[in-house]
């Protein structure tokens, strides 16, 4: 039975095309010899298979209300304020292809629907700490980045992973702000990518990942500031050189490559000692590596000369 997945934000029922009608329409267009590109697709991803919660990663605090996590977003392609959840619904999530290429044995295009079937899906409660000093806890569904990289075979000379996110001028008004170095790029080292915490996210709150949170597929490394987590990924490239990220290109003195959470290293314009909890508004102390040091501190012992903290 096909059931329309309910969303965390309110779409008036009349604006939402039931999923089975979308599939029917696509099949009909295909039969008529029209490509999928001709469809003005609504923001629906494929159904999300059920995924068990992984108990290795306790949230340590209350899960953020779905309404808050899905209506208070940073997604500059749609605009620089937090209220982009509605315009972001124009992002066509299906079909969606993410290329994995660069220094790998087998570059490949992955359809997100195929990844949902092929990858070992699990749910993780992860904290997200934005560099702007607010935070949330979200039940993300996804799979380790290492499982994806195993599909393409990284070459020994691959040292970094570069993430490129979608750039669709027809639906992303923010791209008209041409002084920004679009597309939004992020990156990490291979060692960071292979860490078990590095997670490719395809769902939130048991539903397909909505566009405003980076649907249909985004990245998340919970020990780093949120800007490292590229949304709506179109390309993952293994490289020998350190990629220059979007924020690093804009303001290198404020947003570096490593961007690990550290309460004792202030942003040039504000303290990072505490954070505002999304929803309750409570202020709580920020933890080193956002509390994930037990998994990741070892990655940095030989890198003490680097600017590790944003
Ligand atoms: N493509 C893209 N990815 C992005 C951003 C963005 O503007 N564009 N903002 C980043 C920032 S600053 C944060 S804090 C998180 C926010 O994710 P959320 O909206 O799911 O909370 O997404 C990150 N990923
Ligand atoms: Mo952020």
TrEMBL record:
Stored SUPFAM superfamilies: Oxidoreductase molybdopterin-binding domain (SSF56524)
Cofactor(s) this protein requires: Mo-molybdopterin
This enzyme's EC code(s): 1.8.5.-
Transmembrane segments: none
Statement: the UniProt record of this protein carries the keyword Signal: yes
Domain Oxidoreductase molybdopterin-binding: 93-247
Binding site residues for Mo-molybdopterin: 73, 76-77, 130, 165, 213, 218, 229-231
Name of the top EC class for this enzyme: oxidoreductase
Keyword Oxidoreductase: yes
Domain of life per record: Bacteria
Coiled-coil residues: none
Pfam families registered for this protein in UniProt: Oxidored_molyb (PF00174)
Keywords recorded for this protein, A-Z: Metal-binding, Molybdenum, Oxidoreductase, Signal
Cofactor note: Binds 1 Mo-molybdopterin (Mo-MPT) cofactor per subunit.
Catalytic activity: L-methionyl-[protein] + a quinone + H2O = L-methionyl-(S)-S-oxide-[protein] + a quinol; L-methionyl-[protein] + a quinone + H2O = L-methionyl-(R)-S-oxide-[protein] + a quinol
Single GO MF annotation: oxidoreductase activity
NCBIfam families in UniProt: PRK05363.1
Function: Part of the MsrPQ system that repairs oxidized periplasmic proteins containing methionine sulfoxide residues (Met-O), using respiratory chain electrons. Thus protects these proteins from oxidative-stress damage caused by reactive species of oxygen and chlorine generated by the host defense mechanisms. MsrPQ is essential for the maintenance of envelope integrity under bleach stress, rescuing a wide series of structurally unrelated periplasmic proteins from methionine oxidation.
Subunit structure: Heterodimer of a catalytic subunit (MsrP) and a heme-binding subunit (MsrQ).
UniProt similarity note: Belongs to the MsrP family.
Protein name: Protein-methionine-sulfoxide reductase catalytic subunit MsrP
Organism listed in the record: Paracraurococcus lichenis
Name of the coding gene: msrP
């Amino acid at each position: 039975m096909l059931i329309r997945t309910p969303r965390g934000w309110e779409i008036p029922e009349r604006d939402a095309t039931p999923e089975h009608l979308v599939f029917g329409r696509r099949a009909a267009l295909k039969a008529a010899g029209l490509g999928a590109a001709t469809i003005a697709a609504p923001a629906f991803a494929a159904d999300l298979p059920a995924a068990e919660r992984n108990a290795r990663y306790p949230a340590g605090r209350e899960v953020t209300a779905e309404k808050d996590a899905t209506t208070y977003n940073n997604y500059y392609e749609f605009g620089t304020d937090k209220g982009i959840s509605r315009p972001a619904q124009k992002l066509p999530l299906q079909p969606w292809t993410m290329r994995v290429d660069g220094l790998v044995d087998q570059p490949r295009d992955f359809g997100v629907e195929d990844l949902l079937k092929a990858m070992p899906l699990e749910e993780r409660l992860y904290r997200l700490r934005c560099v702007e000093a607010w935070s949330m806890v979200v039940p993300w569904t996804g799979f380790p980045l290492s499982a994806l990289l195993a599909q393409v075979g990284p070459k020994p000379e691959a040292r970094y992973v570069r993430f490129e996110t979608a750039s669709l001028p027809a639906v992303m008004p923010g791209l008209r702000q041409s002084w920004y170095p679009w597309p939004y790029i992020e990156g990490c080292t291979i060692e960071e990518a292979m860490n078990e915490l590095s997670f490719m996210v395809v769902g939130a709150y048991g539903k397909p990942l909505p566009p405003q949170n980076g649907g249909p597929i985004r990245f998340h490394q919970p020990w780093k500031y949120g800007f490292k987590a590229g949304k709506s990924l179109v390309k993952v490239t293994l490289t020998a050189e350190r990629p220059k990220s979007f924020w690093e290109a804009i303001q290198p003195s404020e947003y570096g490559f490593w961007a690990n959470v550290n309460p004792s290293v202030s942003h040039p314009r504000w303290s990072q000692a505490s954070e505002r909890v999304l929803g309750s508004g409570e202020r709580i102390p920020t933890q080193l590596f956002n509390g994930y040091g037990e998994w990741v501190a070892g990655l940095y012992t030989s890198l003490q000369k680097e600017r590790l903290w944003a």
